[in-house]
Design goal:
This protein has 428 residues and is α/β, with parallel strands linked by helices. 37% of the residues lie in helices and 21% in strands. It contains 16 helices and 16 strands. The strands form 3 sheets. Strands 10, 11, 12, 13, 14, 15 and 16 form a 7-stranded mixed beta sheet that branches. It has a 6-stranded parallel beta sheet with strand order 6-5-4-7-8-9, sandwiched between helices. A 3-stranded antiparallel beta sheet has the order 1-2-3. Helix 12 links the parallel strand 11 and strand 12. The chain is globular and about 65 Å long. The protein starts with 9 loop residues before the first helix and ends with a strand.
């Protein structure tokens, strides 16, 4: 990971240091090492004991944006106890996993490689038996990179559905409820495919509240939740998808799969607090998650920041976590974190010596190369000098180009993590 940004004041420099420290501390391999230990032939996962000698093979599989870094952590622990595996991640997020096959596929919209990866995983699962232990590494992004459609649902239908849902402002719970109805792998599909092998699922949560029914569309958990979509959104979906949602498949029984959540946004908030304290800032963490329309959440954060900055004379860092949404109405380019940062820049003018940072812990924000954005009280002025209006940018959802104009883009590349988004307001 190489953090790229252009801090315009001391507050921005501090915010970037905090963000970078958080990314290092919530990497998948680091969290695996904290949650899993091996003593001889015994594996301990958050205190749960597994006798590796009870199995003929120990296999490592996974899917999601952080699955490779998680795989690196578990392989380091297992050593020669690993007998192979298969991991699927987002394009550009692959890395070395000795003895384990690594595939890349599309995100946030599935592509042909996603279908090929889904078939490979089903073939791999079919070759396991009751004497195998499968350690499955699940992180956000699994819904897209690993796919096998229900009969009658084409790849084009799946792509159209994902694009409509992602532009609608629906939260991840609603989106994954739809995805689950269209897939052979989701909502417990992989659990049935791997039976009768023993499966342990290690989860890096990118979902507020760590709802296992939503993370990665629950490949190892039977889900009975039916999608609840507004009529106009339902009507915008392909006919084959509408038909599948009207007559959903019956929930099938599945073997029990133990899940262990090894990291989430609450950990990111905690680590941000520690990092802020180490920089002589007073941390002010908020447990209420950021959810809802990104630009409105930015206004709420700035309002709270204004209150706290009047209460505290010393340097402070307000810390928020969660995952907002964007209802696309324009034709520009951006993401939910960039939308938050751009909207916040409108409100920062009266808060001297401050900055606002909003960025994903996975290094990606929407269909852009940015992880998010960082703005200060003079961001709007710098942008307008280059001919970019913040109001026009928000009207057209063109926040990437706005932040580019005011030197507010934050770029990391793949981080090896995925525990929601982090928002910081720092006063130096």
């Amino acid at each position: 990971m190489l953090l790229q940004a252009n801090p315009a004041n001391r507050a921005s420099e501090l915010a970037l240091q905090i963000y970078e420290q958080v990314l290092l501390r919530v990497r998948g391999d680091s969290l695996i090492r904290q949650a899993v230990q091996r003593v001889g032939s015994e594996l301990f996962i958050q205190g749960h004991r597994i006798d590796l000698t009870a199995f003929d093979r120990v296999l490592v599989c996974g899917a999601g944006k952080a699955s490779v870094s998680m795989g690196q952590g578990i392989l380091e622990i297992l050593g020669d106890h690993c007998h192979g595996g298969l991991v699927v991640t987002k394009e550009g997020h692959a890395g070395p996993l000795p003895g384990v096959a690594v595939l890349e596929a599309g995100h946030p919209v599935p592509n042909e490689a996603s279908l090929q990866a889904g078939e490979r995983m089903l073939e791999f699962a079919d070759a396991t038996n009751e004497t195998d232990l499968v350690i499955f590494l699940l992180s956000g992004g699994a819904s897209s990179v690993l796919e096998s459609q229900e009969e009658g649902i084409s790849l084009a239908d799946a792509i159209d559905t994902n694009q409509v849902l992602l532009a609608s402002g629906q939260d991840i719970h609603s989106i994954n409820a739809v995805r689950s109805q269209l897939s052979r792998l989701k909502a417990g599909g992989l659990a049935r495919a791997f039976a009768p092998a023993t499966v342990i699922c290690l989860v890096l949560s990118d979902v507020v509240g760590n709802d296992l029914r939503t993370i990665g569309s629950a490949p190892f958990l039977a889900v009975t939740r039916e999608p609840e979509l507004p009529f106009e959104l339902f009507s915008a979906l392909p006919e084959s998808v509408q038909r599948q949602l009207r007559y959903p498949r019956l929930t099938k029984s599945q073997p029990l799969v133990q899940h262990f959540v090894i990291g989430s946004v609450s950990l990111a908030i905690h680590e941000a607090g520690d990092a802020a304290r180490a920089l002589s800032l007073t941390p002010l963490p908020y447990s209420d998650p950021l959810q809802g329309e990104a630009r409105y959440m930015a206004k709420r954060v700035i309002k709270e920041a204004s209150i706290q900055l009047h209460r505290h004379e010393e340097p402070v860092c307000l810390i928020f976590g969660g995952e907002t949404t964007v209802t696309l109405k324009g034709t520009g380019m951006g993401g939910r974190c960039q939308e938050m940062a751009a909207a916040a820049s409108l409100q920062l003018g009266k808060l001297a010596n401050t900055c606002f940072l909003a960025a994903g812990t996975d290094g990606t924000d929407g269909p852009t190369l940015a992880a998010g954005g960082i703005v200060d009280p003079h961001s709007c002025q710098r942008s307008s000098q280059k001919g970019f209006s913040i109001r026009d940018a928000l009207r057209n959802n063109d926040t990437f180009r706005y932040l580019e104009a005011c030197d507010g883009l934050l770029i990391t590349g793949p981080t090896g993590s995925n525990v929601n988004d982090l928002v910081l307001v720092v006063r130096a």
